Amino acid sequence: xxxxxxxxxxxxxxxxxxxxxxxxxxxxxxxxxxxxxxxxxxxxxxxxxxxxxxxxxxxxxxxxxxxxxxxxxxxxxxxxxxxxxxxxxxxxxxxxxxxxxxxxxxxxxxxxxxxxxxxxxxxxxxxxxxxxxxxxxxxxxxxxxxxxxxxxxxxxxxxxxxxxxxxxxxxxxxxxxxxxxxxxxxxxxxxxxxxxxxxxxxxxxxxxxxxxxxxxxxxxxxxxxxxxxxxxxxxxxxxxxxxxxxxxxxxxxxxxxxxxxxxxxxxxxxxxxxxxxxxxxxxxxxxxxxxxxxxxxxxxxxxxxxxxxxxxxxxxxxxxxxxxxxxxxxxxxxxxxxxxxxxxxxxxxxxxxxxxxxxxxxxxxxxxxxxxxxxxxxxxxxxxxxxxxxxxxxxxxxxxxxxxxxxxxxxxx
Amino acid sequence: xxxxxxxxxxxxxxxxxxxxxxxxxxxxxxxxxxxxxxxxxxxxxxxxxxxxxxxxxxxxxxxxxxxxxxxxxxxxxxxxxxxxxxxxxxxxxxxxxxxxxxxxxxxxxxxxxxxxxxxxxxxxxxxxxxxxxxxxxxxxxxxxxxxxxxxxxxxxxxxxxxxxxxxxxx
Lengths: 413, 170
What we know:
The structure holds 2 protein chains of 2 kinds. Chain A has one domain: 7 Propeller (Methylamine Dehydrogenase, Chain H). Helix content of chain A is 14%, strand content 38%. In chain A, the strands form 7 sheets. Chain A has a 5-stranded mixed sheet, with no helix packed on it. Chain A has a 4-stranded antiparallel sheet with strand order 4-3-2-29. Chain A has a 4-stranded antiparallel sheet with strand order 5-6-7-8, with no helix packed on it. In chain A, strand 2 and strand 3 form a beta hairpin. Chain A is globular, with a radius of gyration of 23 Å. Chain B is mainly alpha-helical. Chain B contains 8 helices and no strands. In chain B, helix 2 crosses helix 6, helix 3 crosses helix 4 and helix 7 crosses helix 8. Chains A and B meet through helix 1, helix 2, strand 1 and strand 24 of A and helix 2, helix 3, helix 4, helix 5 and helix 6 of B.
């Protein structure tokens, strides 16, 4: 057969172009086009009032808290018992939907993005970091010395300026407060941007964690490496900060703390290990108390990269990495409510990144920067999914960029 | 293009309509995966949107878009080959259902080619670029393009000879 005949056959090869794909592509392109800096400056549309949404957020959060305090776990124990594991699923080339639903908050080199359940994404500004409000109605975002509250479409509601660079803003479950670090200090501001106050002037570089009991208590790690609890509404002492209510020695080099949704545990994450600090609510005095602290077993010689508590179940997930002469290997492990021995969900060559739970606690999102993928792993039965091309998806114009970080996987809308 | 650069959303939509199908087909014929092709074509357009203000209007839009699309498709195909090697190491997850595939002898024959050969064949015979243009797009020496093209065509011819003979009446 001659080349010309071959060419003709190639040209006439029928490759149907799905209309849905064309439509989706157009939506994404139009959204990107609308977001690009306009040639002659565009203004955002008018702001909507914050108060009704904050009230709604508070009502829903209160209801959710009540639900979360109820016992849950038997079904989850079953899932863990049936956990499969351990190689990565086949990658899909792009995020056409978020498995299990919900929305992602993703921090890229150029700012945070909100990813909708259908996979469409929108950059919400050029902030340095961001985190969800409890029901995903708002985003707390930091840039330089400014802390801002935004709608998920990027519309700003308010902004406060601190004395030093703002980091690690965390919205309380009630929706009424935001804790954040500014320089070395820990501060709290009301959800409407008022009443900014100092909590502790000298803290470790660890994001604060709010009590899920609905009390104004916030956990943090002080400069001496102690895990402390402060009542953000107590009167200030002479130092200008409210006195701490309770304290306990945290593990060495703690990088992250998380107060579990049931309120009974604070997870401490350090490269060398995972610890669960037992907590109890003293109902008479309306404050939390420390109880027993236990270590979670990690594989010998492994380093903890990231860990997270499940939102609705007594489960913890962690990413651990081994550096060996034969090559780096990483694993995702899940800890059940009673047996502290981890179950391995996944083991892959190379390094894995952060781990995030889905809002329903049935899936994990695990970052795999080396292959430019996100892995969506079911904790129980079901198939894992992998999404490729992650860094390009969060770079203007789809250019190659550094791998983004998942800051939160929030409730649907 | 000029109107799109000046902020006309309708012009951008027209540009999309003009070029989407060819971009998608080119991506599909390299990666043989409908979802991947969609994503790759979409990425190509996103890159176009990102660089719209810098785009030289005197140059045609199509080749620039195809360059991005085919390069990304090649990256995807290479990475997929690597993934298959990794996946063999341990396989516990149930396999995902096979992706929807387009039937047709020519498509099947193309799929048998290595990704690098597929890309040059698609660029040459579907998108009708010259070997010199392909060399520039893929940042390859022209001789490499020619040899990949030759090997690709030879293998295509072997794989699809009978069917193609029938299709083109030879």
